[in-house]
Batch of 4 targets.
Target 1
Amino acid sequence: MKKILFCVFCFAVLLGACRNAKAPRGKDSVTVKTARAEKHEDRLSIEYPGRILAASDVNLSFRVAGPILSVLPEEGAFVKKGQLIAEIDPRDYEIQLAATEAEYAQIKGEAERVMEMYRRGGVSENDYEKAVYGLKQITAKYNAHKNALADTRLTAPFDGYVQKRFYDAHETVAAGYPVVSMINNSYFDVEIDIPSSDYVRQKQFKAFYCTIDVFPGKIFPLELVDITRKANLNQLYRMKFRLKPVEGVDVAAGMSVNVTIDYTPGVEQLVAIPLSAVWDDNGKESVWIYDSSSSSIAKRAVKVKQILKTGEAILESGVRAGEAVVAAGVHGLQEGMKVSVLPEKSETNVGGLL
């Protein structure tokens, strides 16, 4: 039994010696992955919540008064520009125009005879001026009554939807009183509020677009309309954009959106590195800088300006373009440590067979 135990002990010692012989000597050597800091000249972006509004929500009214003959579209109906919306009984206005038209024809004929006689020297200048004045007066009256008859028909000023009807047929309406409320369907407005820190750099704004929660994955371009010059009670400035309808997407007023503003960073020297290279050093953002001449690393504090959806961090200080940073395996490293860089995969040597 003692011989067996002695043999097992010797075998264990021999196996441990073999393992120690195969172990790497450089215990402080760690393999890391590095990435080169690239100069970032692309646009940065900011995002704000907003809301879609109807481009114009207008109340349509008659210019003349009278009993309503008909109100054609129902609430919620779509109407085209120029389509008849409502009509006032034209009877009284037709009679008025007919009487004025007869008077106009009579005065016009008399005035033309007087003006012809004046050119021949047959009447005085005073009679000529009276004829000219009388013709202008009856012409204005005739046009006014002709317009009044035309104004008994209320038509849609744009393509849109009837939102509300305030009167129905057989009711009498006064001039200027709303009869129908319409929403413009040709485009929409989008409004957001921005702080003064973004208001002062509005000259750097380059592009605008939004996403709508109910249409995931779709991007809608925006056109800037205006920015208010006075802040509201919350010290925010209102921006208004124009959103044109997209075919096949039923956008409606009242929907919530997220507006993205792309802007140029100005004179700042920005670089982009993988977000995985940034680590927390007692509350400070830091990276490991790799020195290829000494194969060692050094800690350096950085300031992150923005994190992109692509997984990159945009730095405004701490790293210069062209410097190498440790992009993977950042934890557990120490200042001045010697490291081995993981070789990059070759696009022509797939699988490392060559």
Target 2
Amino acid sequence: MYVGNAILALMLKLNQEYLEGNIKKLYIFHGLLGMMITMPIVTLFFQENGLSMQDVFVVQAVFSISVLLFEIPSGYISDKLGHKRALVLGSLVITLGAVVYALAYGFWAILFAEVVLGVGHAFISGADSALLYNTLIGLGKTDEHKRIESKVVAIGAYSQAIGGVAGGIIGAINLRYPFIIWAVVLIPTIPITISLVEPAVKRVKDTSANLWQEMIKIIKYSLHGHKELKWIIIYAGAINTSTLVFVWFMQPYWQLLNIPIAWFGVLWAILNVSIGVFAMFATKFENLLGLRKALIALVILVVTTYILLGLYPSLIILPVILVFYFVRAVQQPILRDYVHRRIESDVRATVLSIKNLVGRLMFIIVGPALGYASDLLSLPVALLLSAGTFATIGLMALIFLHKNKAL
């Protein structure tokens, strides 16, 4: 009897150690995934390969469509077959996408690379956060989720900062070199995801014949049956889209201010370091204002920043861009934690995928239109139009959040 208890205690201890290892491995995984040294020069790379600003947003819209098509099926498969398997597959496909990018010339080759990356991103999106939260359930540490999620955001941001400096310097020599290095950096994500341990949680029943019916049921629950969840998902999509659009306007904005390309990496690094710093204040920000006022404040900050950048394009106003990165940093831990606490483990990745899908849909609709406005009119005008667009979407989401007593 004592031997049996000792063996059981040893097994529990080993299980705890393996689960603790998941957290560390996910930190490393997001560090490597965030090492996107291509980002400081990616729009310039597009333009070098003959793409207009409208083309840039079309390419990103196609990326979003490819994510959209696989987002919910990948989330459902992740919930059903295991989040680890989804992460392994996602790592393989994203690495392949980076290789395709390194070899891409012209619009159609770049478009294909984005489709491959979109599929890989879909399998990682939701599965990483779901595996982390289920790991914390197994460890009995769900109260630490917001703090750990903030750290994940910070690590990814610091990694982008390091990669950004290198990308700007290397890109000034040749705009293709950062893409080649990026592909090499992603390779270790494959063995890391293979080494993860799947926490023991309840799984969706194996009803493969009804896979689509099961997914539709979860979609209806998220976007119709659970009104609180529905409107927080729509709000999250609006905030994500509002900051993502500026990411693709940022390099042309720097060019508008006559900033040398070699400095793009340094600026990118500063912005991503700011994400790492800001992310650690997500809990304090929510506690200080309360959830309701915090969500209202995020919309006001985004809209005000677009207006200032559009009206006063100058080096003096440049630091205002940090406001976008504050919003990007604090919204993810707050909104992910909000969603996690209102869903069960057996649909966790699927619901998170639905949340991401809504944001992608918004970007597909809004992004190319704003890119076209930039080509046809001017970048400052497009920024002002962005302010009006996201003020409208953000206000609508907040009104319905209040109406449905989600705040």
Target 3
Amino acid sequence: MRVRILAVGRAQRGPEADLVADYLSRFDRTGRPLGLGPATLSELDERKGGSPARDAKLFRVALRDAPSLIALDERGRTLSSPAFAAHLADLRDQGAREAAFLIGGADGLPPDLRGEAQLTLSFGPMVWPHLLARVMLAEQLYRAATILAGGPYHRA
């Protein structure tokens, strides 16, 4: 099952972008034998968006088809890392070819897209900067793959 992260805004070169690239590379190596991956990051040009309605159009163009949608939003459910891993495994086992994780712009995700998501996921009640949300998601994808592979990375 392919994994796509669709995020409004462009990350400049720097430590956050490096961390995302590193964790997605680790996810690819660990996840491929499990039927997970590759993982890609698609950045939507925020200059073409700027409002939830315009951002919705950018997301719709980027999505093209209808993969399993997972929205990141502070109003979503918080999951433990093992529960997140189990959700990914369930999507894969149900035959999903792709899971798309949506990270909105400064005003969050458009309500209609949030409503279409199979899961609305929160990293807690705090609002995180979009670049850090990308890092945290990439790390959790890698952690999920190691949990499913039985690796030692997750020590709960």
Target 4
Amino acid sequence: MADLIFADADLAALYDAMNPGREDYDFYRPMVMGAASVLDVGCGTGSMLHAARDAAHKGRLCGLDPAPGMLAQARRRADVEWVLGDLGSVQWDAEFDLVVMTGHAFQVFIEDDALRYALARIHSALRPGGRFAFETRNPLARAWELWETEARDTVDGPQGEKVRMSRKVTTPYNGRVVSFSHTFQSASWDAPRVSHSTLRFIGKADLDAALAQAGLVLEAQFGDWDESPLTETSPEIITIARRI
């Protein structure tokens, strides 16, 4: 869901090329492979679940995403269950041992009510003792201050065209959210394509309180993908919580 900037079918075909070397996938992979049933919320192109099948995962794998363009990429293989929608349009009752959200998808829950609702649905989807694993950027690390200089990627598009992506912060951090735009340009296109997004940066205290309210017990938290401890300057708040 954090990747709605790639909701357009042509842009969705660029997503994996623009996001290589996924450290988050490396982190979540052992949990995915060790769970009999997995729900990937905001699965995007489905590449993490594809990899799980390639690694001989024999259980249930389900990907949920609201972007038809992304799911069109995911559905290139049919041995995974793909669902078009979001946590407000579908509901599962104690069906999964693991729910994951990768790619900072958790940050799309901007309002408190939306966050509470999403966590309640995730709680319902988990079997008793099941785990919810996800990450959100640590607001104290102020990642948005580097976004405009970091995002200058050029990749090959589906027709062989060169596509360049740049990012611009449109509304600075206000203590809660950051708004920004992505611009995709190619000499093969008539005009650039621009998308606009807003993400919430939730701190540890508010995050932990929301999980507890949803009946999810904190099991572990890390500050980066190497499982280093969470500190004030850590780039991530990587969280594993368990349904009571």
